[in-house]
Each structure stands twice: as C-alpha cells, then as structure tokens.
Backbone:
C-alpha cells in the first residue's frame, strides 16, 4: 500500500492496483482530515479553466478537494449544472418519502425519460440552426443550447445529496449494503442529470465495497464516527466513479505534480471522436517536433499525452455506446493521425491532390467521420501551400522513421471524467461576466457525435490544463 511519504515520485510501469491503492489511501485520509496531504486525480482541486479555488470559495464551502464540499460548490455556484426544470417535481416527490434510497428505483426511469426528451429537444433546435452541406470547418460550428434548469434548484439538489449520504452512512453502520447502487446512481445523477444514469453501476458498486473494505483495513478495525464515515463514503463514491472509467485498466504511468495525480493509458487513435478543430500550422509544428525528437530519453517519438474522457452516446445511440472524447490535445491527435496516414500510403507526400485522395480512403477505412477529414484536409493544404515547406522537406527526409508509424495504433492519454470539470463555454462567456458560463456535461455527446456534425470553434470550450506532464513514446 502506498504511503503519504511515497508519493513524490512517479509510478512507472503502473497497474490498476496502484490506482486502487491510491484511491483507498485518499478515502482513509479523508476520515483523518489529511486529504490535503495527498495528490488527487485531476481536476479535483481545480475550479473553472483550471484555476485554483479562491480563499473565499474555501471559506464558504470548506475543503473543495473533498467530494462532499465540491458537490455543494458546483450545485450552488452554477445553476446550469443543476436539476433540469422538468425533473424538479419528481425530486420534490422523492424527498417527501421517508427513505430516498429505497424510493429511488421507482423514479429513476422517469428521470431517464425526461433526460432523453430534453436531449431530443436541444438536438432539434441545434439542427435547425446548423449549416448544410458541411464542407469547411465553419460549416460545423454550432452554438451550444442548454437543457433548461431550475435556477432555484440548488437547495433541492443539496437536500437530495445530504439525505442520500446520511442514509447510506447509517445503513453501512448497521451492516446493510442493499442500497449502495441506488446511492451511486443519485450521486451520478446530481453530477450529470442528463447522461449520469446512462450506464451500468454494477462495476462501481463492486469497487465501492472493495474501497470501503480497504479503508477499514487501514483503520485497523477502529470504529469511525458518523461525521468521519460521511467523509469516507463521499470520497469512496468519487474514487469508485473514476476507477470504473474505461482505459484505466490499462494504465501505464501515474504522474504526480504538486497536488495533482495524472493516470496515463494508451487509447486507440481510431476511437477518438472530435468536437473541436485544430490549427494547421500548429499541427505541422507538432509533426516537426515529433520527428526531430525521435531519440529522446523518454523513448521513440515521445509526445505530451492528450487528455480524454468517455461519455455515453445518448443522442443518436449509434455505435459505439460510449464516445471517447478529446478534452485537450486536438493538435497532437491530428498530427499523429496524419503521420500514421503517411506511413500507410507514403505516396501521399508527393502532392496535395494525391494526398487528399489518400485522406478520403484513409477516413473511410478507419470510419473517422467528416470532422476528422475536414480537419486533416486543411493541414494538407497548409503542408503543400508553398514549395520548400520545411515540414514537408523534413518528412521526405525521414521516410524510414515515418514508416514506423504504421505500428502506431494508440496514443498516450490522461484519463479524466467530463463531469468532474467546470467546463467553460467561451462562446457564451464575456469578460464582463461575474462568473463563467459552463457547458453541461451532455454537450460532449452532442458535439462529439459524428453523425450530427456539430463542432466548437477553436478554444470554444476551456477545461483547464494540468500543472505538468510526463511525455510518453508513440512508437513502443
């Protein structure tokens, strides 16, 4: 088991068990009031845009590194992250019952139906405003529309959270675990009322129980006060939610920087959805950097990991069931995808017309969709825009290395969760605003669905970035 003193160095050759042990240690530390001493998964300790929480935030809400206080902060400060207006009546009825946990299964299906109806309505409005046909980047740009929330719902949501947390803590004290899954569903719903219930909770329930057992082991069977148990349960809920994130089973490296923990895994390039476009010159600069840094000490062609999350495909519901979305790193993803294409068909380097034809077949082969194609097409136009382009000359001179990219099916990525962020909508936030306007988590399903054709403008959404990173090799 990791200790407080052993977390200054990265964990290379990391395993899923390392992530589990770190999660258990944080949950145990929450009960002892020492959570601040441990690095926490990014972006646990960050407010909007990756900024730190202010002194005023901490004085009002308490330790915002803990799940209990962070939930209060999000619900009270950002009405757009609150309960949908169409669901407040259902939640009020739930709160009138003696046990919200026992009653939850009777109303959760109603909440799912309301969420599906809200998504359909928003999608229809956005489709009416969209351009057709979509040939250039500007044709895809769309303005996000929110699901309407009740501006006075924070108190209602907090009542549900506090009731559920108190009930599950009392049940656990009495040795009852029958309603753990119901509690986890409530937590997921409050974090994301639209997409939060669109998955199975069986695996998270298993991890929740396993983490609690690990905490009791660390506690050496010493009893926890009700106050401390509440802290532990809230923390275990958050930790178990992250542990079931796809791709973390294949974690390869855990990086620590300050109070941040970053878990890296390799994810399939072909699985990446797109919601935002890149800038061609920036992509070419990254290609040059990758090729020129081919023998770095971090390995062959190391790159800063992109940042990804998975989100349920709740809009068109076509395959795949979950979208792998790029939170940060669109330029790096495009650069690697193009290098792989040039390895697949080296003749694409001979000229723009041939390269665009290869690109069309490449996108069809990998089922990449129109946004990927348009994004890479503009990079090709920039690459062949003038004779003697230094990036083109470099690529022609390094054909043997580029050929190695035929092996590159995966890209290193920091695995995060969209609902953990306070994602700012830059299209709807002005400098004069008292606070930023947030996107709702379900917007990722809309903008990443390749059949809808919606996209953010460049830097149209801001998640914030980590304090540091660990480069990992593309060619392994």
Residues:
């Amino acid at each position: 088991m990791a200790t407080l003193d052993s977390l200054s160095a990265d964990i290379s050759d990391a395993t899923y068990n390392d992530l589990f042990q770190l999660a258990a240690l944080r949950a145990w530390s929450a009960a002892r009031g020492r959570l601040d001493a441990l690095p926490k998964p990014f972006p646990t300790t960050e407010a909007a845009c990756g900024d730190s929480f202010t002194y005023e935030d901490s004085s009002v809400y308490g330790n915002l590194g803990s799940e209990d206080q962070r939930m209060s902060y999000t619900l009270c400060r950002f009405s757009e992250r609150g309960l949908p207006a169409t669901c407040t009546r259902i939640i009020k009825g739930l709160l009138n019952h003696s046990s919200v946990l026992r009653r939850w299964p009777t109303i959760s299906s109603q909440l799912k139906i309301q969420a599906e109806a809200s998504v359909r309505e928003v999608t229809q409005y956005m489709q009416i405003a969209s351009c057709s046909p979509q040939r250039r980047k500007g044709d895809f740009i769309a303005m996000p529309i929110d699901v309407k929330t009740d501006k006075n719902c924070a108190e209602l949501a907090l009542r549900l959270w506090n009731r559920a947390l108190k009930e599950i803590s009392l049940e656990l004290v009495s040795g009852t675990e029958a309603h753990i899954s119901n509690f986890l569903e409530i937590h997921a719903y409050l974090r994301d009322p639209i997409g939060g219930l669109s998955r199975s909770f069986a695996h998270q329930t298993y991890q929740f129980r396993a983490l609690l057992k690990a905490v009791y082991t660390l506690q050496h069977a010493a009893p926890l006060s009700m106050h401390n148990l509440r802290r532990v349960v809230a923390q275990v809920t958050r930790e178990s939610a992250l542990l079931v994130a796809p791709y973390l089973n294949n974690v390869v490296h855990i990086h620590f920087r300050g109070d941040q923990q970053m878990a890296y895994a390799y994810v399939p390039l072909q699985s990446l959805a797109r919601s935002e476009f890149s800038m061609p010159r920036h992509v070419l600069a990254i290609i040059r950097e990758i090729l020129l840094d081919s023998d770095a000490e971090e390995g062959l062609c190391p790159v800063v990991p992109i940042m990804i999350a998975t989100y349920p495909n709740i809009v068109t519901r076509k395959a795949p069931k979950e979208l792998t979305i790029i939170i940060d790193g669109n330029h790096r993803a495009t650069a690697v995808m193009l290098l792989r294409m040039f390895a697949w068909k080296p003749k694409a380097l001979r000229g723009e017309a041939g390269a665009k034809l290869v690109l069309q077949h490449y996108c069809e082969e990998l089922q990449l969709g129109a946004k990927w194609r348009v994004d890479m097409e503009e990079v090709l136009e920039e690459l062949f825009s003038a004779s003697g382009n230094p990036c083109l000359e470099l690529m022609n001179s390094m054909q043997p290395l580029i050929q190695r990219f035929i092996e590159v099916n995966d890209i290193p990525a920091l695995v995060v969760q969209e609902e953990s962020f306070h994602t700012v909508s830059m299209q709807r936030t002005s400098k004069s605003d008292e606070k930023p306007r947030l996107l709702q988590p379900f917007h990722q399903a809309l903008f990443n669905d390749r059949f809808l054709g919606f996209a953010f403008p460049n830097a149209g959404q801001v998640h914030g970035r980590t304090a540091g990173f660990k480069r990992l090799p593309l060619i392994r």
The CA atoms of residues 126 and 188 lie 26 Å apart. The chain has a mean pLDDT of 92. The first strand starts at residue 11 and ends at 12.
